[in-house]
Amino acid sequence: MADTHSSRASTYEEANTRWMGVGDENIILNPRFEDGLNSWSGRGCKIALHDSMGDGKIRPLSGNFFASATERTQNWNGIQQEVTGRVQRKLAYEVTAVVRIFGNASPADVRATLWVQAANGREQYIGIANSQATDSDWVQLQGKFLLNGVASKAVIYIEGPPAGADILLNSLVVKHAAKLPPSTPPDFENVIYGVNVIQNSNLDDGLNGWFPLGPCTLAIANGSPLVLPPMAKGSFGPSEPLSGRCILVTNRTQSWMGPAQTITDKLELHLTYQVSAWVRVGSQRNGPQNINVALGVDTQWVNGGQVEAKDDRWYEIGGSFRIEKKPSRVIVYVQGPSPGVDLMVAGLQIFPVDRRERFKHLKKHADKVRKRDVVLKVSGSDTHIPLRASVKVRQVQNSFPLGSCISRANIDNEDYVDFFVKNFNWAVFGNELKWYWTEPQQGNFNYTDADELLDFCKKNGIEARGHCIFWEVDGAVQSWVKSLNKNDLSTAVQNRLNGLLTRYEGKFRHYDVNNEMLHGSFYQDRLGNDIRAYMFKTANQLDPSATLFVNDYHVEDGTDTRACPEMYIEQILGLQDQGAPVAGIGIQGHIDNPVGPIVCSALDKLGILGLPIWFTELDVSSDNEYIRADDLEVMLREAYAHPAVEGIMLWGFWELFMSRDNSHLVNAEGDVNEAGRRYLALKQEWLSNAHGRIDDQGEFKFRGFHGTYTVEIITPTKKFSQNFAVGKGDSPLVVNINL
Asked: Where is each GH10 domain found (predicted)?
């Protein structure tokens, strides 16, 4: 094995300087059909060889031939090649296919998929790549995959378009993926943090620097708040009062009209900018009004924060953004209310955030929230011995829940398992407990995957969250459930509750009862307003030991008016008023460009409910692993330092097994990247060690993080060790040690 590893390492070195290293052979046989259709077959359909089609209008993009999958009657019909024995497990492969469609005027999805069968007959479908294809041009499908377990059979195939459309394939290349060069850390050396890039924000110089976006009218008015919005205050600390002046926007005939400013030359790449303003709408409003600070970055719209105004008050708007590529033009503008509704904007601030300064504050806060004073009281038969004894205290494990999403396929990969078991103490299953997975067709149950994952967790001392019993968003409901009438749907919901919660009673510590109720209403629309509370009450009756959670996204980042903390609080209180035993708040945490004070503000607001808050699906995304690491550190530190947060679950950590691209901590073949190193460094930081000598009272005092410890006491005559645990508590913990 050592020889294989060293040859792979040299391949990587060459791949860093060239697209392909020696030994990166295509595992596809006859990839360009130079040998006819040898090694290829139809998947549920016929295949044919061509040098041209459509009266000579369609020709190969490269080479002399292409193949068609024809007489297709299902989406999954296509052209395939068996690659058993040529694809190796735990190696990352990149796939490039040149495809188009024929006989279908509309664009259609074309997908590359790997079908794998294990020795025990278990089947797995791995989605590799998909792209929109047309009948007018060839397109390239590109993607990567990795096989976790041993395959007794493996087939790669091209599928996807609707029945009747032919798939044309010009070439297929599947090679060991070249290792990407490491990211370059961004240079923030000369950045001056906290400086507002908006010109004349306080309107001391009239409307200089501002212009109306569209034919609306800008004027200066008085009566806006004099204090900085709270989220900006969290970043700035004490600062000068605002002027009390605001921009009044009238004659708005489109929702996008508002005050604007060009800021192209004032922004640095890769820096995280916080956005802050006071906003208000005029009395012409008819119902709630959405207000948004937007950025036009060349042709792209970037969300700088949103708020919903329901009355005449001034509302704080807060958000963040980052620019990764040099733009030719950036304008910032405030928009959103309905045409005819006046808009007022005061104290707009856009400034780079000093994350390191914030981290110092959070470290102090975490020490208050997550540590406890400990007194080791030492006694022994020889009272003089303890006075000369030296003490070494080492924390073995921090008890704060840090977990990750895992899937059934992942646990066939020993490298994945090794990293997971060493570095996480909780798990949640990506799909394996969802209703569409456990009952894909009515009465056809699949609990095998969830059972095996639970066994894996139990064997490794890992606690598990149950995600999720129901999912309220229409697109996540399987077709057979959608087709049911009201009575049958009600019965199916009851059967789902009975089946899942009796089978797993006492085995999941938490359940997300009805996922994303701020963003969907499938069950509520069909079964009435009481159904959500009924789900909670029934789940609690069937498994009283489980903590029942709500779970939703964009609650913490200021970007989504449907999911602000106030709406979440309203929803939770409404459920509780109906008798629902909501006992935990799930914040998913799929976040971009996180800013500490904005996240903290959401946690503070939700904290008033007195319920435990968990980040349930945390991930951050950047193709630069140093920026990704910074974003991850922001989220982990904010959560760990906040007293209302009782656990953090990452939504995966291993490349190719994440729901978002560029969010992994470990590369596909097991190399820990900068984001992973940052996570491991924080885990290390959150372990307490202490050493010294026993004082003349026979005591040794220290302050340490909650968790399990071992203490070693060395006297001139003996060595003694003892394990102990530090739990939550305000008063010092006294640990008696008898030598």
From this structure: 390-682
